[in-house]
Specification:
7-stranded antiparallel beta sheet; 6-stranded parallel beta sheet; alpha/beta; about 850 residues
Amino acid sequence: MALLRRIWFQIHWFIGITAGSVLVVIGLSGAVLSFRAEIVDAINPELRHIPDPAGAAALRPAALAAQVQAAEPARRIAALTVFAEPGRPARINFAPPEGQRQGEVRLADPWTGALLPEPAGDAFFEFVEHLHRWLLLPRDAGKPVTGTLAAGLLVLALSGLYLRWPRRPLAWRAWFKLDFALGGRAFLWNLHAVAGTVALLAYLVSSLTGIYWGFDAVRSMVDEAAGEGRVVRAQRMQAGSAPAKAQPAPDLQRVWQSFLDEAGGNWSQATLRLPARNASQVEATYLRTNAEHERARNRLYLDATTGEATRHERYADKPLAGRLVNSIYPMHMGTYWGLPGRIVMLLSSLGLALFAVTGWMLYLGRRRTKRAVREERMRLGSGLRPDGPGAEPVLLTFASQTGQAERIALQTAAVLQSAGVAVVLQPLVRLSVDALRRYRKVLLVASTFGDGDPPDSLRAFARQFALQTGSSLQHVHYGLLALGDRHYANFCGFGRALDHDLRGHGAQALFPMIEVHNGDAGALARWQQSLAEAFGMRQPGAWKAHEPEAASFEPWRLVRRTLLNAGSQGDPLFEIELAHSGAAAWAPGALAELLPRQPARAVEQCLRRAGLDGRTRVRCDGRECTLEDALARSMLPAAPAASAQALADMLVPLAPRRYSVASTTADGCVQLLVRQARHADGLGVASGWLTEGAPLDATVELRLLPNPAFALVDDEVPCVFIGNGSGFAGLRAHLRERVRRGRGRNWLVFGERNAAHDAFCAEDIAQWQAAAALERVDLVFSRDQAERLYVQHRLREAAGPLRQWVDSGAAVYVCGSLEGMAPGVDLALREVLGPSACDTLIAEGRYRRDVY
């Protein structure tokens, strides 16, 4: 129970200081919107009620639409809203222009049909609404972000409830007593907890409705389940229509009269949604005179030509699910419960700022306390320092995914030994806290895998090290070199976590942690300097990020490009074939690292904007080249420059891209499986260049890198190969080599979207089966059935055989996407085999991953 509480505490504070900080913006903007209509009406009293001209009668919808359409002939009216209250302006919704999702909304004079000026302050509230709903991001990008934040609020509310659950849950004072006699941290916690309890129901409503609005899939699922989906409504609009013929213009006179007859005068607001795309129905949604809330709409479907009512859906007659779906917006705003509900939601929205402030103060206070405790422990343990460098061995340990950390550790060991320092070199996976305790000085070289994760082999160690309590390393002095890639948000995440945990165990840093981005020479030089100062050495010559014999980039030729999934629902997947003029060799599992180039069109546009000649010679990234070539190798700048050299000085080189090699040395060429990455501004740089931009016979600068974490195992060992999509590349290389060596105990589990378009692996599989090299094949195509199925589902279905293979010594290879597939497979393996068995597989090197 204590462990569970600690886990939930970590989740609560982590979400609180990350998503919680952004939720303040959501909350404050929501508070501003709480009384938007009343504020706008107060600012624009002249638009709240239009005076009645002498003797004039309000225009009926048909005449109103005609007047507006005559004034705006280039725009189609999609919907118009009228009010029973005399003098209330009508609202006109124009159809969106081509390429846009939403048209303009204008107010119209109910007596003359003239369009009225936009209300003062409306633009400000539109800005606040975009901030609240999408954080000023594009709608499609902002909705899942705010939906995720709503999910974070839900987790915060529920985890907070769990963490503060009192011993006497039935005593109201335990939940709601705010004790002003407390001070400092105790008062902050009391205020935070009591306010959270008071606002709990409001936050549950806000978060659940926010998730509904934030994720289209959730909204569609809920709407369809309640019979309120867009598809159903569209079918009703098209009921009785003849798709092959254009429908005549709607007769709004008849439609409106029929509406009045059906409503029986019991209406306060009515919206006529005019038909489009050959639909034959006009949808009239209206509120009764005393409606339950502003979304308690009744729907009336009327024949656009005759005005005859074909369907009348009253809000009061809907099943509970239908009424709830139509009440989601009022619940979110609080209007479902009238004015008291609006005030509660207003206060709860403002309360998010209170939670952020108190939460941060509690978090920072806890950090200060821990730091003071660590400093005291260090002071007490200062007498345990060794007499001097070389007096006893230094432990040098490394955590490596692709081998780079191990190479740097070997170089470090060589330098220390040449200076007379005794070194014990061990991989971190073989060590424990007890082993670290035996040394006074420890040096660590730690790689981060993906977005902040430890290398696969270190996952169990990282969990145990973080959860183990005590201060058993007070006498240990350590130096830490963290390797990572700044393209990931959690740069050097594992190294930072390791540094934090070492300090938490009482260890003292010899020097501040050094972070290295992709073998940065400057950071490695700081590592050298720090070691020289810590051990009293003369500083050696410059080191390199890789071993001296590591491959350099060489020119390869693009000889073939084949689309593998024509007609697929997914992005296009290409097989890229590259040839080398000389001899090249690599092992299965190897990586191809290449230097991408910008499309020629993009380079030309950049030169045109800058007004510069691409043939001008410049010096860029330590070499002389043309400005055009420098731009092709770099991220294109947005800012102008005064000269070609000034522009070259601004350039940041494109980062190398790595792909799993899908062929073997015996194939005579390097083959890659490259899926086009599509972004809002076009194709991804590397995938777009390889699959579309680079002409055949183009030169590709490439080097082959070993991948020890995904290397081929001993011939006799059975292998289970698991992957999806372009991850077939790494699996194919292994299987081809296994087939060449005559090893047939292979099991392939592979997933894609549709068998009709994405079965690009079929030919290879048929050949391997004909050669008796595949003992078992499990293919899953996620979209070929109503329920989405993935490779992890196949693993659970084959739990018995999978356990038998692993028990017989099988190695498990996983290759594919880091998002979705790899965590899903990892969870399935842990469910089928058990967590301890998975950790054993990792420690024995029998669980190997190449995920991206």
